[in-house]
Amino acid sequence: MHTAHAFQAPADMLKTSVILPALVLMLALSLAACTRSGPGEPPSERREEPAAPRTGAGDGSLQVTPALQQKWGITTATPARGASSAAVTLPGVLRLNERHTAQITSLLEGQVVSLGAELGAAVRQGQLMAIIHAPALAQAKTVFLQAAARAELTAREYERARILLQQEAIDQKEAARRTADFEQARTEYGVAESNLHSFGLDQLQVDALLNRARQPAEGDRHDDLADPYLRLTSPIDGRVIARDVIAGQHVLPNLALFTVSDLSTLWAVLDAREPDLPFLAEGRVVRIRTSLYAGRTWDGRILHVGDVVDERSRTVKVRVDTPNRGLLLKPNMFVHGELVGASGTREVLTLPADAVQSINGEPVVFVRIAPDRFAARPIETGERTGERRVITKGLDGFESVVVTGAFNLKAEFLKSSLAGG
What is the pLDDT of residues 61-75, one digit of tens each? Predict the structure, then answer.
Protein backbone atom coordinates (compact mmCIF):
# COMPACT_ATOMS: atom_id res chain seq x y z
CA MET A 1 0.00 0.00 0.00
CA HIS A 2 2.69 2.38 0.85
CA THR A 3 4.54 1.69 -2.39
CA ALA A 4 1.43 2.30 -4.65
CA HIS A 5 0.69 5.64 -2.98
CA ALA A 6 4.23 6.79 -3.59
CA PHE A 7 3.85 6.02 -7.35
CA GLN A 8 0.44 7.96 -7.81
CA ALA A 9 1.76 11.37 -6.71
CA PRO A 10 4.12 11.90 -9.69
CA ALA A 11 1.27 11.14 -12.16
CA ASP A 12 -0.89 13.97 -10.76
CA MET A 13 2.00 16.37 -11.01
CA LEU A 14 2.53 15.44 -14.68
CA LYS A 15 -1.14 16.13 -15.53
CA THR A 16 -1.01 19.56 -13.92
CA SER A 17 2.15 20.52 -15.80
CA VAL A 18 0.42 19.82 -19.14
CA ILE A 19 -2.89 21.69 -18.49
CA LEU A 20 -1.46 24.96 -17.15
CA PRO A 21 0.64 25.86 -20.23
CA ALA A 22 -2.37 25.17 -22.47
CA LEU A 23 -4.55 27.56 -20.48
CA VAL A 24 -1.87 30.25 -20.63
CA LEU A 25 -1.59 29.88 -24.41
CA MET A 26 -5.40 30.15 -24.87
CA LEU A 27 -5.52 33.29 -22.71
CA ALA A 28 -2.73 34.95 -24.73
CA LEU A 29 -4.49 34.23 -28.01
CA SER A 30 -7.73 35.65 -26.68
CA LEU A 31 -6.02 38.87 -25.52
CA ALA A 32 -4.34 39.31 -28.89
CA ALA A 33 -7.68 39.00 -30.66
CA CYS A 34 -9.25 41.58 -28.36
CA THR A 35 -6.38 43.98 -29.01
CA ARG A 36 -6.81 43.78 -32.79
CA SER A 37 -10.58 44.19 -32.69
CA GLY A 38 -10.75 46.96 -30.09
CA PRO A 39 -12.47 46.80 -26.72
CA GLY A 40 -15.86 45.20 -26.93
CA GLU A 41 -15.84 44.98 -30.76
CA PRO A 42 -15.81 41.62 -32.58
CA PRO A 43 -13.08 41.25 -35.20
CA SER A 44 -15.59 40.83 -38.02
CA GLU A 45 -17.28 44.20 -37.27
CA ARG A 46 -14.30 46.67 -37.07
CA ARG A 47 -14.54 49.80 -39.33
CA GLU A 48 -11.91 51.83 -41.28
CA GLU A 49 -11.91 55.65 -40.96
CA PRO A 50 -11.99 57.58 -44.30
CA ALA A 51 -8.59 58.79 -45.43
CA ALA A 52 -7.88 62.49 -44.96
CA PRO A 53 -8.16 64.66 -48.10
CA ARG A 54 -5.03 65.71 -49.93
CA THR A 55 -4.29 68.66 -52.18
CA GLY A 56 -3.26 68.08 -55.77
CA ALA A 57 0.29 68.55 -56.94
CA GLY A 58 0.51 72.09 -58.27
CA ASP A 59 -3.04 72.42 -59.63
CA GLY A 60 -4.69 73.56 -56.38
CA SER A 61 -7.23 70.76 -56.49
CA LEU A 62 -8.40 68.72 -53.50
CA GLN A 63 -8.41 64.90 -53.42
CA VAL A 64 -11.30 63.43 -51.43
CA THR A 65 -11.89 59.69 -51.13
CA PRO A 66 -15.35 58.28 -51.96
CA ALA A 67 -15.83 57.33 -48.29
CA LEU A 68 -15.15 60.90 -47.19
CA GLN A 69 -17.41 62.27 -49.93
CA GLN A 70 -20.21 60.12 -48.55
CA LYS A 71 -19.49 61.26 -45.02
CA TRP A 72 -19.61 64.94 -46.07
CA GLY A 73 -22.76 64.45 -48.14
CA ILE A 74 -21.16 65.65 -51.37
CA THR A 75 -23.37 65.50 -54.46
CA THR A 76 -22.84 67.07 -57.87
CA ALA A 77 -24.97 68.28 -60.76
CA THR A 78 -24.58 70.27 -63.95
CA PRO A 79 -25.83 73.88 -63.95
CA ALA A 80 -29.45 74.24 -65.00
CA ARG A 81 -30.27 76.25 -68.11
CA GLY A 82 -33.27 78.51 -68.17
CA ALA A 83 -34.72 81.76 -69.40
CA SER A 84 -34.36 84.86 -67.26
CA SER A 85 -36.51 87.92 -67.68
CA ALA A 86 -34.92 90.81 -65.84
CA ALA A 87 -33.45 94.25 -66.28
CA VAL A 88 -30.48 94.35 -68.61
CA THR A 89 -27.37 94.76 -66.45
CA LEU A 90 -23.84 95.27 -67.71
CA PRO A 91 -20.68 94.75 -65.63
CA GLY A 92 -17.86 97.23 -65.96
CA VAL A 93 -15.31 99.52 -64.36
CA LEU A 94 -15.02 103.25 -63.76
CA ARG A 95 -12.45 105.29 -65.68
CA LEU A 96 -11.34 108.91 -65.73
CA ASN A 97 -13.37 111.21 -67.95
CA GLU A 98 -10.75 111.81 -70.64
CA ARG A 99 -12.52 114.97 -71.79
CA HIS A 100 -11.84 116.51 -68.38
CA THR A 101 -8.36 115.10 -67.70
CA ALA A 102 -5.03 116.70 -68.56
CA GLN A 103 -1.38 115.84 -68.20
CA ILE A 104 1.00 118.70 -67.51
CA THR A 105 4.40 118.25 -69.13
CA SER A 106 7.47 120.32 -69.86
CA LEU A 107 8.34 120.64 -73.52
CA LEU A 108 11.82 121.87 -72.61
CA GLU A 109 14.69 120.32 -70.75
CA GLY A 110 15.43 122.02 -67.47
CA GLN A 111 15.49 121.93 -63.69
CA VAL A 112 12.46 122.30 -61.41
CA VAL A 113 12.75 125.47 -59.33
CA SER A 114 9.47 125.26 -57.41
CA LEU A 115 6.12 123.47 -57.35
CA GLY A 116 2.68 124.96 -56.86
CA ALA A 117 0.40 121.98 -56.04
CA GLU A 118 0.47 118.83 -53.96
CA LEU A 119 -1.02 115.43 -54.72
CA GLY A 120 -4.77 115.50 -54.08
CA ALA A 121 -5.03 119.30 -54.16
CA ALA A 122 -7.91 121.02 -55.96
CA VAL A 123 -6.59 123.39 -58.65
CA ARG A 124 -8.14 125.99 -60.93
CA GLN A 125 -7.56 126.58 -64.61
CA GLY A 126 -4.47 128.76 -65.04
CA GLN A 127 -3.09 127.99 -61.56
CA LEU A 128 0.71 127.84 -61.43
CA MET A 129 1.86 124.23 -61.06
CA ALA A 130 5.64 124.43 -61.53
CA ILE A 131 8.48 126.76 -62.49
CA ILE A 132 11.31 125.24 -64.53
CA HIS A 133 14.65 126.82 -65.35
CA ALA A 134 14.99 126.15 -69.09
CA PRO A 135 17.82 127.98 -70.93
CA ALA A 136 16.26 127.09 -74.29
CA LEU A 137 13.27 129.27 -73.40
CA ALA A 138 15.47 132.34 -73.02
CA GLN A 139 16.95 131.70 -76.45
CA ALA A 140 13.49 131.25 -77.97
CA LYS A 141 12.28 134.53 -76.44
CA THR A 142 15.35 136.34 -77.79
CA VAL A 143 14.77 134.98 -81.29
CA PHE A 144 11.11 136.01 -81.09
CA LEU A 145 11.85 139.58 -80.01
CA GLN A 146 14.48 139.95 -82.74
CA ALA A 147 12.03 138.62 -85.31
CA ALA A 148 9.35 141.00 -84.07
CA ALA A 149 11.71 144.00 -84.36
CA ARG A 150 12.78 143.02 -87.86
CA ALA A 151 9.17 142.46 -88.91
CA GLU A 152 8.17 145.93 -87.70
CA LEU A 153 11.16 147.54 -89.43
CA THR A 154 10.54 145.84 -92.77
CA ALA A 155 6.85 146.65 -92.53
CA ARG A 156 7.65 150.35 -92.33
CA GLU A 157 10.12 150.03 -95.20
CA TYR A 158 7.51 148.25 -97.28
CA GLU A 159 4.87 150.94 -96.69
CA ARG A 160 7.39 153.68 -97.52
CA ALA A 161 8.48 151.89 -100.68
CA ARG A 162 4.87 151.57 -101.83
CA ILE A 163 4.37 155.34 -101.47
CA LEU A 164 7.69 156.18 -103.17
CA LEU A 165 6.90 153.86 -106.03
CA GLN A 166 3.65 155.72 -106.70
CA GLN A 167 5.67 158.96 -106.74
CA GLU A 168 8.24 157.31 -109.04
CA ALA A 169 10.90 158.09 -106.44
CA ILE A 170 12.23 154.53 -106.54
CA ASP A 171 12.28 151.93 -109.25
CA GLN A 172 10.44 148.61 -109.36
CA LYS A 173 13.53 146.61 -108.37
CA GLU A 174 13.98 148.46 -105.07
CA ALA A 175 10.27 148.15 -104.26
CA ALA A 176 10.38 144.42 -104.96
CA ARG A 177 13.41 144.00 -102.69
CA ARG A 178 11.70 145.76 -99.79
CA THR A 179 8.57 143.68 -100.35
CA ALA A 180 10.60 140.46 -100.24
CA ASP A 181 12.34 141.55 -97.05
CA PHE A 182 8.98 142.27 -95.45
CA GLU A 183 7.54 138.86 -96.41
CA GLN A 184 10.61 137.02 -95.12
CA ALA A 185 10.59 138.93 -91.82
CA ARG A 186 6.89 138.27 -91.34
CA THR A 187 7.47 134.54 -91.89
CA GLU A 188 10.35 134.45 -89.40
CA TYR A 189 8.18 136.25 -86.85
CA GLY A 190 5.41 133.68 -87.26
CA VAL A 191 7.83 130.79 -86.77
CA ALA A 192 9.36 132.36 -83.64
CA GLU A 193 5.91 133.01 -82.16
CA SER A 194 4.85 129.43 -82.91
CA ASN A 195 7.91 128.14 -81.08
CA LEU A 196 6.93 130.06 -77.95
CA HIS A 197 3.44 128.55 -78.12
CA SER A 198 4.91 125.08 -78.44
CA PHE A 199 6.93 125.72 -75.28
CA GLY A 200 3.75 126.41 -73.31
CA LEU A 201 3.25 130.17 -73.63
CA ASP A 202 -0.30 131.15 -74.55
CA GLN A 203 -1.23 134.13 -76.72
CA LEU A 204 -1.74 136.44 -73.75
CA GLN A 205 1.77 135.69 -72.48
CA VAL A 206 3.30 136.25 -75.93
CA ASP A 207 1.45 139.54 -76.38
CA ALA A 208 2.52 140.69 -72.90
CA LEU A 209 6.16 139.91 -73.74
CA LEU A 210 5.91 141.89 -76.96
CA ASN A 211 4.24 144.87 -75.29
CA ARG A 212 6.92 145.05 -72.62
CA ALA A 213 9.61 144.98 -75.32
CA ARG A 214 7.95 147.93 -77.13
CA GLN A 215 7.96 150.12 -74.05
CA PRO A 216 10.86 152.58 -73.72
CA ALA A 217 13.72 151.04 -71.78
CA GLU A 218 14.49 152.58 -68.41
CA GLY A 219 17.63 151.29 -66.72
CA ASP A 220 17.61 147.48 -66.57
CA ARG A 221 13.86 147.05 -66.98
CA HIS A 222 14.23 144.94 -70.12
CA ASP A 223 16.89 142.64 -68.74
CA ASP A 224 14.27 140.07 -67.72
CA LEU A 225 12.45 139.96 -71.07
CA ALA A 226 14.29 136.80 -72.04
CA ASP A 227 14.21 135.13 -68.63
CA PRO A 228 14.67 131.33 -68.75
CA TYR A 229 11.86 130.43 -66.33
CA LEU A 230 9.11 128.29 -67.83
CA ARG A 231 5.86 128.55 -65.87
CA LEU A 232 3.56 125.55 -66.17
CA THR A 233 -0.11 126.11 -65.38
CA SER A 234 -3.15 123.85 -65.15
CA PRO A 235 -5.26 123.88 -68.32
CA ILE A 236 -8.44 122.79 -66.46
CA ASP A 237 -10.19 122.88 -63.12
CA GLY A 238 -9.78 119.63 -61.23
CA ARG A 239 -7.84 117.65 -58.69
CA VAL A 240 -4.20 116.55 -58.82
CA ILE A 241 -4.43 112.75 -59.06
CA ALA A 242 -0.77 112.15 -59.93
CA ARG A 243 2.45 114.07 -59.23
CA ASP A 244 5.70 112.62 -60.52
CA VAL A 245 8.15 115.44 -59.83
CA ILE A 246 10.02 117.02 -56.92
CA ALA A 247 11.79 120.35 -56.52
CA GLY A 248 15.31 120.35 -57.96
CA GLN A 249 14.59 117.47 -60.32
CA HIS A 250 16.07 117.56 -63.82
CA VAL A 251 13.24 117.03 -66.30
CA LEU A 252 13.17 116.12 -69.96
CA PRO A 253 10.63 117.07 -72.62
CA ASN A 254 7.31 115.19 -72.64
CA LEU A 255 7.78 113.84 -69.11
CA ALA A 256 4.38 113.92 -67.36
CA LEU A 257 4.81 115.96 -64.19
CA PHE A 258 1.18 116.26 -63.08
CA THR A 259 -2.15 114.67 -63.98
CA VAL A 260 -5.20 116.79 -63.26
CA SER A 261 -8.74 115.49 -63.63
CA ASP A 262 -12.21 116.83 -62.91
CA LEU A 263 -13.67 113.93 -60.91
CA SER A 264 -17.18 115.37 -60.83
CA THR A 265 -17.90 113.12 -63.81
CA LEU A 266 -16.41 109.70 -64.63
CA TRP A 267 -16.75 107.22 -67.47
CA ALA A 268 -18.30 103.85 -66.71
CA VAL A 269 -16.89 101.45 -69.30
CA LEU A 270 -19.33 98.53 -69.41
CA ASP A 271 -19.25 95.14 -71.17
CA ALA A 272 -22.39 94.47 -73.20
CA ARG A 273 -23.11 90.98 -74.52
CA GLU A 274 -24.42 90.47 -78.01
CA PRO A 275 -28.06 89.90 -76.87
CA ASP A 276 -27.89 93.29 -75.08
CA LEU A 277 -27.07 95.28 -78.22
CA PRO A 278 -30.71 95.95 -79.27
CA PHE A 279 -31.23 97.84 -75.99
CA LEU A 280 -28.19 100.13 -76.42
CA ALA A 281 -28.22 103.58 -77.98
CA GLU A 282 -26.38 106.84 -77.42
CA GLY A 283 -28.18 109.05 -74.92
CA ARG A 284 -29.97 106.20 -73.16
CA VAL A 285 -30.04 106.39 -69.35
CA VAL A 286 -27.94 103.83 -67.48
CA ARG A 287 -28.22 103.43 -63.71
CA ILE A 288 -24.80 102.78 -62.18
CA ARG A 289 -24.54 100.69 -59.01
CA THR A 290 -21.65 99.48 -56.87
CA SER A 291 -21.61 96.91 -54.08
CA LEU A 292 -19.71 99.39 -51.90
CA TYR A 293 -22.78 101.66 -51.73
CA ALA A 294 -25.59 99.16 -52.10
CA GLY A 295 -28.38 101.66 -51.49
CA ARG A 296 -27.18 104.36 -53.91
CA THR A 297 -27.37 104.80 -57.67
CA TRP A 298 -25.89 107.22 -60.19
CA ASP A 299 -27.76 107.90 -63.45
CA GLY A 300 -25.56 108.40 -66.48
CA ARG A 301 -26.07 108.48 -70.24
CA ILE A 302 -24.49 106.39 -72.95
CA LEU A 303 -21.83 108.36 -74.83
CA HIS A 304 -20.65 105.65 -77.19
CA VAL A 305 -21.37 102.03 -78.11
CA GLY A 306 -18.34 100.14 -79.42
CA ASP A 307 -18.21 99.17 -83.06
CA VAL A 308 -16.37 95.84 -82.63
CA VAL A 309 -17.26 92.65 -80.72
CA ASP A 310 -14.31 91.29 -78.76
CA GLU A 311 -13.40 87.86 -80.13
CA ARG A 312 -12.64 86.32 -76.74
CA SER A 313 -15.26 87.77 -74.40
CA ARG A 314 -17.94 88.28 -77.09
CA THR A 315 -18.73 91.67 -75.57
CA VAL A 316 -18.89 95.27 -76.78
CA LYS A 317 -17.53 98.22 -74.79
CA VAL A 318 -20.12 100.82 -73.78
CA ARG A 319 -18.99 104.20 -72.44
CA VAL A 320 -21.37 105.95 -70.02
CA ASP A 321 -20.92 109.54 -68.80
CA THR A 322 -21.60 109.28 -65.06
CA PRO A 323 -22.09 112.26 -62.70
CA ASN A 324 -20.11 111.63 -59.51
CA ARG A 325 -22.16 113.24 -56.76
CA GLY A 326 -20.14 113.62 -53.58
CA LEU A 327 -17.07 112.14 -55.31
CA LEU A 328 -17.94 108.75 -53.82
CA LEU A 329 -17.14 106.90 -57.03
CA LYS A 330 -13.46 106.26 -57.71
CA PRO A 331 -11.65 105.45 -60.96
CA ASN A 332 -10.97 101.70 -61.40
CA MET A 333 -13.90 100.77 -59.12
CA PHE A 334 -16.03 97.82 -60.32
CA VAL A 335 -19.65 98.72 -61.08
CA HIS A 336 -22.79 97.41 -62.75
CA GLY A 337 -24.92 99.40 -65.14
CA GLU A 338 -28.67 98.81 -65.42
CA LEU A 339 -30.48 99.97 -68.53
CA VAL A 340 -33.44 101.94 -67.20
CA GLY A 341 -36.73 100.74 -68.68
CA ALA A 342 -35.17 97.84 -70.57
CA SER A 343 -35.66 94.14 -69.87
CA GLY A 344 -34.82 91.10 -71.88
CA THR A 345 -35.23 87.36 -71.86
CA ARG A 346 -32.07 85.33 -72.24
CA GLU A 347 -30.69 81.92 -71.37
CA VAL A 348 -28.82 81.77 -68.09
CA LEU A 349 -27.08 79.16 -65.96
CA THR A 350 -28.27 78.64 -62.40
CA LEU A 351 -27.07 76.63 -59.39
CA PRO A 352 -28.45 76.11 -55.89
CA ALA A 353 -27.40 79.01 -53.70
CA ASP A 354 -25.49 76.62 -51.37
CA ALA A 355 -23.24 75.63 -54.27
CA VAL A 356 -21.75 79.13 -54.35
CA GLN A 357 -19.08 79.67 -51.71
CA SER A 358 -16.83 82.66 -51.00
CA ILE A 359 -13.03 82.47 -50.79
CA ASN A 360 -11.11 85.67 -50.08
CA GLY A 361 -14.28 87.62 -50.79
CA GLU A 362 -14.70 86.17 -54.29
CA PRO A 363 -17.47 83.72 -55.31
CA VAL A 364 -16.37 80.21 -56.30
CA VAL A 365 -17.89 76.80 -56.96
CA PHE A 366 -16.23 73.39 -56.69
CA VAL A 367 -16.03 71.39 -59.91
CA ARG A 368 -15.38 67.63 -60.01
CA ILE A 369 -12.39 67.08 -62.28
CA ALA A 370 -11.93 63.39 -61.38
CA PRO A 371 -13.96 60.86 -59.36
CA ASP A 372 -11.94 61.73 -56.24
CA ARG A 373 -10.71 65.24 -57.06
CA PHE A 374 -12.30 68.71 -56.92
CA ALA A 375 -11.12 72.17 -57.98
CA ALA A 376 -12.29 75.64 -56.92
CA ARG A 377 -13.57 77.59 -59.96
CA PRO A 378 -13.90 81.43 -59.73
CA ILE A 379 -17.24 82.66 -61.07
CA GLU A 380 -19.34 85.79 -61.37
CA THR A 381 -22.89 85.73 -60.07
CA GLY A 382 -26.08 87.53 -61.01
CA GLU A 383 -29.44 87.88 -59.35
CA ARG A 384 -31.20 85.25 -57.23
CA THR A 385 -34.10 83.31 -58.66
CA GLY A 386 -35.79 81.66 -55.70
CA GLU A 387 -33.32 79.30 -54.04
CA ARG A 388 -30.96 79.40 -57.00
CA ARG A 389 -28.24 81.79 -58.11
CA VAL A 390 -27.60 82.97 -61.66
CA ILE A 391 -24.02 82.33 -62.86
CA THR A 392 -22.98 84.99 -65.35
CA LYS A 393 -19.36 84.00 -65.92
CA GLY A 394 -16.94 81.15 -65.19
CA LEU A 395 -18.97 78.10 -66.27
CA ASP A 396 -19.98 76.77 -69.69
CA GLY A 397 -22.85 74.64 -68.36
CA PHE A 398 -21.29 71.20 -68.81
CA GLU A 399 -19.27 70.97 -65.60
CA SER A 400 -20.11 68.63 -62.72
CA VAL A 401 -20.52 71.11 -59.86
CA VAL A 402 -20.78 70.29 -56.14
CA VAL A 403 -24.30 71.33 -55.08
CA THR A 404 -24.35 69.88 -51.54
CA GLY A 405 -21.43 69.57 -49.15
CA ALA A 406 -19.61 72.49 -50.80
CA PHE A 407 -19.06 74.15 -47.43
CA ASN A 408 -17.04 71.15 -46.21
CA LEU A 409 -14.90 71.30 -49.33
CA LYS A 410 -14.33 75.01 -48.80
CA ALA A 411 -13.28 74.44 -45.17
CA GLU A 412 -10.84 71.71 -46.15
CA PHE A 413 -9.58 73.77 -49.09
CA LEU A 414 -8.82 76.74 -46.81
CA LYS A 415 -7.24 74.45 -44.23
CA SER A 416 -4.96 72.91 -46.87
CA SER A 417 -4.07 76.35 -48.24
CA LEU A 418 -3.07 77.64 -44.80
CA ALA A 419 -0.99 74.52 -44.26
CA GLY A 420 0.90 75.23 -47.46
CA GLY A 421 -0.87 72.56 -49.55
Answer: 899 999 999 999 999
